[in-house]
Amino acid sequence: MQSCQKFVLLASQRTGSQALNRHLNQYEGMVMHGEIFNAGFVGLRSDYHEKLSLPREGVEMRDADPEQFIARIFDDPAARFVGFHIFPEQTRPAILPVLEDQSVKKLWLVRNPVASFVSLLEAEASGVWAVHASDPLPAGDYRKKVRFDIDRFNAYLHELNLFRAKIKSVLFETGQPYFPIHYSDIADPLVGNAIIAYLGGSQRLDRFETDILKPPSRPFAERIENYWEFTAYFRAISTEALYAFG
């Protein structure tokens, strides 16, 4: 029997992690969970809540012994690959040994933080976090303009940069590589195949089945209410402050 390859996906909100999760779970032997340490829910893959006797709302059960919870996630005899997401706001002491463990491979998903932040504002304003092909389109104008909150963006960017610096520090000190993934590539099966190869697999897919609809791209001028304030801010900001752009 082949050993199970453990991995984590380093990501943040509105970077396409949910879509990437669905794509990777289409590979044979893949068990990719979601945000298992989200403050509001336990993001196991849907068929694992019953398997692990842990409901989605079982936050207190999870938090009673996070180390044991992670061990249960990784101890999956049915899986060839098993992993979960780590977001900036979900780091905790139990995560550090996972990051330091060289047997746990790292995938790192990034997106332009301005695009992620605007997408976050839109999702919060509309209440629409994902549009599925199997569901009717949301009623009303769910893509109306949002106000770009500069102070909140600065705090968001600071947290993102801090997360990135901490992760890079751990990986550098332990001599670990990571597989970089950009938001624009998550629907590309060639990238998915490369991820599987990085994890030690050999399966190849020609296409992904997906029910998450990606809305057509629109310029920021059509999405941001205070667009001129937005552009003035970015003309004045220093390059160093935008470290998270990568």
Description:
The protein is built from nine helices and seven strands; from the N terminus they run βαβαααβαβαβαβαβα. It has a single domain (5-245), classed as Rossmann fold (3-Layer(aba) Sandwich), CATH 3.40.50. It has helices spanning 17-24, 48-51, 59-64, 66-74, 96-100, 113-126, 150-173, 189-198, 227-236; strands at residues 5-10, 30-32, 81-86, 104-110, 131-132, 179-182, 212-213. The chain is globular and about 55 Å long. The N and C termini lie far apart (40 Å). The protein has 246 residues and is an alpha/beta fold. 37% of the residues lie in helices and 12% in strands. The strands form two sheets. It has a five-stranded parallel sheet. The mean pLDDT is 91.
Quick summary of this structure?
The protein is α/β, with parallel strands linked by helices and 246 residues long. 37% of the residues lie in helices and 12% in strands.
Biggest sheet: strands side by side, in what order? 2-3-1-4-6
Number of helical regions: 9
Q: Unreliable segments (pLDDT under 50, ≥5 consecutive)?
A: none
Radius of gyration: 19 Å
Question: What share of residues are in beta strands?
Answer: 5-15%
Mean pLDDT across all residues, rounded? Answer: 91
Tally of separate domains: 1
Structural class: alpha/beta
- Tell me the overall shape: globular
CATH architecture call: 3-Layer(aba) Sandwich
- In whole angstroms, the N-to-C terminal distance is 40 Å
Here the CATH topology equals Rossmann fold
How much helicity do the residues have?
25-40%
Order of helices and strands: EHEHHHEHEHEHEHEH
What is the number of E strands? 7
CATH class: Alpha Beta
User: How many strands, which pairing sense, and closed or not: the largest β-sheet?
Assistant: 5 strands, parallel
